[in-house]
Amino acid sequence: MFTSFARRLTGWYVAAAIALVMIVLGAFSVAALSLYVHLLQANVDAVARDAQAFSARAAARHQDFVSAASEFEQRAHAPGVRIVATGPLGHGGPPPRESAAFATPLMMRPGEQSPPPPLLRGQPPPPSIVIDGGVVHGDPRQVSFSGNRFGFALGTAFGTHLIRSEFVGGDLRLLPDPNAIGAVATWLLGGLIIVAAAAGLLAWFSGRYITTQVLRPLVEVTHALQRFAARDFHPQPIAVAGKSEFDAIALAYNAASAQVAAAFAERRQAETQMRQFVADAGHELRTPLTIVLGYIDLLRRKADGGDERSRRIFSSIALEGVRMRTLIDNLVLLARMEGDDVRPAEPFALRPLLDDICDSRRLLMPNLKIELALGVDATVIGNRDEIHEAVANIIDNAVKYAPGAPIRIAVRRVDGGVEIGISDRGPGIHPDDRTSIFDRFFRGTTRGDIEGSGLGLAIAKRALERAGGSLSLAPDTGDGTTFILRLRADQTHVPAEPATLV
Known about the structure:
Distance between the termini: 56 Å
Largest sheet: 8 strands, mixed
Number of strands: 13
Radius of gyration: 53 Å
Order of helices and strands: HHEEEHHEEHHHEHEEHEEHEEE
């Protein structure tokens, strides 16, 4: 949730920070390198002016080329400036030797001298090259332009040039050292990479912190809405720091949550008052209704010897009175179950309870077919009277809505308890009614002329929930209706007697 967005936003921070650092430091590095190269070129120009004055003095002293070049290099040494003095062989150098071929190093350490290259017969002697106080032999152009190619290319790009002037019978070549330019460029590039990497890490951590703080109200509001979707309506206000515009969402959620909590509190209060009213009204109506039914029964007995019309009237009144008393009893029972009246939950054997319910129905309806399939004997936990009421209501529903169809009660072991499946072979429940089947006073669209109050399944569901179990409707298979009752069980074991009783 918002994780991918936070990562993308942090990535944008990092990319922007690295790009900005690279641009700024790149421009600074280019400017610094350009300034350094121009300073080297200025040093070259200054050394060239000094070389002309020194050459005139050396010529006046009749100083030989090699000693004059070595002395000048020592006096005019400047960091980053390459000095290459070139003179003919014989000006202070060793005599040549004959040979068929030669290979001469072009770079010397200070104080070193190399023997002259071997000469082919008739070949003119090569020039002497004085560099860093040492004498080498070879092509002066190779010595001048040898070294770091990258540094040479950068120096050329920034406008460096070679200065060549006469020097004590030879010539002097001066130019910025490409090795020094390459070293400075490498140092600047390494610093640029290190600083960009550090900026990227800093941008990553700061970006994560910023995005976390900015998106925190959205994340918390989303979690809160998910709790709402899971029917958890307890108010849990979100703390707001006031640092982000997203905090307005959290403030709006807090206001809405407070309104919802207030509405649910009013609803709970109204339901409590309604349950109390129903319970009180039921208790108050039971006594006069019992008296009325008693007088009606007395009048009906006296009317048995009279005309047929009187008997039908009194029978109808008595039947409606019984229905009213049943409705009142169910309302009082449901109000008690939904209230704070908690009955003690104790372990009891499940099989005797099912046997009692089945036997009582068989006595009232001898043609009723009830199959009891006990896959397991169990000692369940709950209030026996409430669970008896729940199972009896579901069986009575099957008898009413699937008349003549066999009823099957199957018990099996599940994790944490037992499962009771009560199924019939009746017409089933309409798909539009399945979501509301457990609502109070709901009777479905296919009830026809069947009498009832619509409270039986609501009472059964509430009774099982009070026992820590559940009541659900099995998926529609097109062959009747099946209700699934789950109950907590203390002990379960395979029965010793036959598993199926009819």
